[in-house]
Amino acid sequence: MTDTWWLNPCRAIDVSAYEQALARQQQLTKPAGSLGQLEALAVQLAGLQGRVKPSVDRLWIAIFAGDHGVVAEGVSAFPQEVTGQMLHNFVSGGAAISVLARQLDAQLEVVDLGTVTPALKLPGVRHLNLGAGTANFVKGPAMTAAQGRQALQAGRDSVLRALESGAQLFIGGEMGIGNTTAASALACALLDCPVKDLTGPGTGLNAQGVSQKVAVIERALALHAGQRGDALQTLFNLGGFEIVALVGAYLACAQEGVAVLVDGFICTVAALVATHLNPACREWLLFGHRGAEPGHRHVLQSLDTQPLLDLGLRLGEGSGAATAVPLLRLACALHGQMATFAEAAVADRPA
């Protein structure tokens, strides 16, 4: 029988830890609810970690990279060679996520699933070589089922390495010229939304470029319409290697009991796919920010979530999620270190 590990049950939330953390919040020296979303975050993390006083000190950031055949349709302002060049920038410390990882004292892993420069052998990068990027999905499936399964497993493997390192929080990032086109196509297929509502400039297309991108996605959706009801096949038809790896990582986190902080548009679309494949994973997903790409707002709404930040970011790489980590750490510190009314000998609110 073919292994379908992504369908395995997700870890259950620790209800006792959640309820004890919620009770603690009611006893801290502040009006109930006065720290708003910070309170809810701490309580949610308590349930996920099974600890009344959670923490997110140990952070794992995995960047998944891959190229996209659909770039041949003129959907990107940048050439595909940039994907490989950015891999070098990640491991040499010059990329935004590299700076953020240092600031957060995070483990940073870079996984190359398959780029148009397959001869790359960069120290510090895991080169998996699933293909020289995906195929052009307006002419056929972006990848074979075998490639898709390998990409799912690559995401899972990263999570297993994160677990070995003792990680308390997982952030997935992505790099791949053309991947906002793949993400928009996936979101349109899963949400049945008009393409123009979920398609934006990506790396900087002008209005004419966005119109071209919309037309390309509409062609792809028409080609693969017959399989739209199958979320896994739709992922393989329209996704990228790095998007599939993100899906695999998010599902593995939910199964292994690691909280996820989801990044921007592309990562949120991967989270959407993950919830279609295994709905129980949704409880393990926190959302770092609302990005500038117009489709991001729609996908976040479909997942019924309120992200932590709204700073107009549109870089990707996991950068928006990483920027939100200090808020999670502060939420945990407030929850764990504030005195209770009894400890501080402060009069509690009247009954």
Automatic annotation (TrEMBL):
It holds the Pfam family DBI_PRT. Pathway: Nucleoside biosynthesis; alpha-ribazole biosynthesis; alpha-ribazole from 5,6-dimethylbenzimidazole: step 1/2. Gene3D superfamilies: 1.10.1610.10, 3.40.50.10210. One of its GO terms (biological process) is cobalamin biosynthetic process. Its EC number is 2.4.2.21. SUPFAM superfamilies: Nicotinate mononucleotide:5,6-dimethylbenzimidazole phosphoribosyltransferase (CobT). InterPro entries: Nict_dMeBzImd_PRibTrfase, Nict_dMeBzImd_PRibTrfase_bact, Nict_dMeBzImd_PRibTrfase_N, Nict_dMeBzImd_PRibTrfase_sf. The active site is at residue 317. The keyword Glycosyltransferase applies. One of its GO terms (molecular function) is nicotinate-nucleotide-dimethylbenzimidazole phosphoribosyltransferase activity. It catalyses: 5,6-dimethylbenzimidazole + nicotinate beta-D-ribonucleotide = alpha-ribazole 5'-phosphate + nicotinate + H(+). Keywords: Cobalamin biosynthesis, Glycosyltransferase, Transferase. CDD domains: DMB-PRT_CobT. It comes from the Bacteria. It is an enzyme of class 2 (transferase). Transmembrane segments: none annotated. Belongs to the CobT family. HAMAP family: CobT (MF_00230). Catalyzes the synthesis of alpha-ribazole-5'-phosphate from nicotinate mononucleotide (NAMN) and 5,6-dimethylbenzimidazole (DMB). This is Nicotinate-nucleotide--dimethylbenzimidazole phosphoribosyltransferase. It comes from Pseudomonas trivialis.
